[in-house]
Amino acid sequence: MRAIHVKSYVSGPADLTVTTLPSPTPQPDQYLIAIHATATNFFDLLQIRGKYQHQPPLPWISGSEFSGVILSTPSSNPNPQFKKGDKVFGASQGGYATQICAREEALRPVPKGWSFVDAAGLMVTAPTSYAALVTRAGVKRGDYVLIHAAAGGVGLAAVQVAKAFEAIVIATAGSKRKLEVAKGYGADYCVDYNKPKWEEEVKKLTPKGRGVDIVFDPVGMVNTSLKCTAWNGRIVVIGFAAGNIEKVAMNRVLLKNVSLVGLHWGMYAREEVETVGVVWKGLFDLMEQGKFRGTVYGDRQFSGLESVGEALGMLGRRETWGKVVVAVPQERGSKL
Question: Which residues does the UniProt record annotate as the domain Enoyl reductase (ER) (predicted)?
């Protein structure tokens, strides 16, 4: 197989190279999958630099999210959920490769009518956004929902989930193009959060200027968002894409009766496994109803593992929107 094999930490994605390796041998509880598309993530950038909280021991294959076709089923499982030839998507260490081994709990069936490229970016962003808005914030019809970085992978997923629950979405982003993308995915209003006093513009969009009911924050903008959060508002902290972990003015949380909660989707598989199935059922229901579609960056296409470095570079420089996905051609000996 071919893969991005990291033997030592690198300064940036431009230093990544593709290596030919033996095909992986699955453990008795693992499937072997031929990868047809692989998605990029910010944590991939941190891993290759040796700065992520979950660092695999060197050497290792980079990447995580993927979609592809089952080549073999677990030898220890006489009744596997998937069979040879099934189309699946998932996440497991080693997504930047032509083949990968993964356990059953790390896989889901590719939704009917979805391409490998669209499905490759589902495993991390879609359940994160759904669990944040539905499980943690209790989004409902008529809620005003402020979604920060709305043109990002989790942002576009959140816009669609909120609209599916008949909420009114106010999307923020930092460029005209990204605001256009958010609008195209269903956002009712769009606000540039680089503008001074953007929070006042947000308040004016709500009934009687009361503020938003829910704030979806993957950036680290809680303090400023409190200025435009309504009484009894709910703020869900998804991450800190801006790079700094905030120190929140808790007096504002108290004075507005705000609920401030976090969402660490990756921990549900360990701490609250029963919720994982509930979230995925909700997402698949939305897909079947045509209320949730792929969020793949479409301003240019990436094909072949050699293009992973460029894709990661653009992602790191915040030049993209949605999920940046790389197609992985299957033809033996083809120029990737």
Answer: 11-326
Domain ranges, residue 112 = 2-121+296-327
CA of residue 41 relative to chain centroid, distance = 8
CA 113 to chain centre: 20
Tens digit of each residue's pLDDT (9 = 90 or more) over 18-73: 999 999 999 999 999 999 999 999 889 989 999 887 788 999 999 999 999 999 99
183 in any annotated domain: yes
* Predicted TM-score of the model (pTM): 0.93
Q: Which two tokens stand for residue 123?
A: 């495993």
- Yes or no: say if 210 and 229 are a contact pair by the CB < 8 Å rule: no
Query: Locate tokens 């653009």: which residue?
Result: 314
Same domain, 222 and 197: yes
Same domain, 98 and 141: no
Distance CA 248, CA 191 (A): 23
As for how many domains the chain has, the answer is: 2
Q: Are residues 55 and 187 in the same domain?
A: no
pLDDT tens track for 148-185: 999 999 999 999 999 999 999 999 999 999 999 999 99
CB 97 within 8 A of CB 3: yes
Does a structural domain hold residue 189?
A: yes
pLDDT value, residue 330: 83
Which residue carries 């083809």 as its tokens?
334
- Give just the sign of the alpha carbon dihedral 195, 197, 202, 204: negative
